[in-house]
Amino acid sequence: MIDFGFDKLALIGTVALIVIGPEKLPRVARTVGHLLGKAQRYVADVKAEVNRSIELEELKKMKGEFEDAARNVEQTVNQHIHDTGREFDQAWKDMDAASSGSLGGADDGSALAAPLQPPVPEYRHPKKKWRLKRGAVPQWYKQRNGVRTRTQSGAARVARFRPPSR
After folding, report:
1. What percent of the chain stands above pLDDT 70?
2. How far is CA 81 from the centre of its chain?
3. 118: phi then psi, degrees, rounded to nearest 5
4. For the chain, which ranges sit under pLDDT 70?
5. For residue 71, what are the CA distances in angstroms to 51, 59, 60?
């Protein structure tokens, strides 16, 4: 870069004063200042654009690395799930084979019958039956959260919370 000291700037100023003249020198200096400002802004814009493109490339590279890592984790998890499922199926088959072998070959089906359990009632959505919905909430939950369980008029509510008279 060119190193301008005070002596060099003074020499350039005197030469410009002689060549251009004292009448036009302020206008020329202003024009040169504007042009230098525009050049500096242009260089700053170019630097900013280059920095943005470099950051964008870095972000794209980082995004690719994260996607690769996520893919590897997903494949590892899927492989473990598949292996565990296969082991479970094998253990289930072994248990099934062991239980059928321990029965002694009885084909009457009585040994296989499990004790009967009462059927679980099927859940039915209450739809618009709000009384049923409200009744399904446990009493302890209503008390803890301050849900009113009894209807009370406004006057009775005011009388209930009115301080005692003296």
Report:
1. 83
2. 25
3. -65, 145
4. 1-2, 101-115, 125-126, 130-135, 166
5. 30, 18, 16
Nearest-angstrom CA–CA distance, 16 and 25: 7
Residue 106 in domain: no
The residue range of the domain holding 3 is: 1-64
pLDDT digits (tens, 9 = 90+) for 51-87: 999 999 999 999 999 999 999 999 999 999 999 999 9
Q: Specify if 128 maps to a domain.
A: no
- Residues near 17 by beta carbon (within 8 Å), at least 6 away in sequence: 25
Percent of the chain with pLDDT over 90: 35
- Domain membership of residue 115 (yes or no) is no
Directed axis angle between helix 6-20 and helix 25-102, to 10°? 130
Q: How many domains does the chain have?
A: 1
d(CA 148, CA 137): 12
Residue 73 lies in a domain: no
Q: What is the pTM of this model?
A: 0.37
**Residue appearing with tokens 């959505």:** 125
List of residues 6+ apart from 141 with CB closer than 8 A: 147
